[in-house]
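Deliverable D5.2: sample structural annotation.
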Amino acid sequence: MPAHTQALIEKIEALPAERIAEVEDFVDFIWLREQERALTRSASDASAPAFAAIWNNPDDDAYDAL
């Protein structure tokens, strides 16, 4: 186990029980936010080829220079 992980575990273990619950809630929040961001990135990446055909056309070339 990396030293920074062990140090974090020791700090958490030193907290009162109610604070440990807060830490757990915060970690869950961060994890969920990362999952949502990953889903958003995946959806964006998956849709990019479909939109590229629409966005990249001669009629819109003038807007590329803006």
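Annotation notes: Residues 56 and 64 are 9 Å apart (CA to CA). DSSP finds three helices and no strands in the chain.
The annotation will be released with the project's public dataset once the embargo ends.
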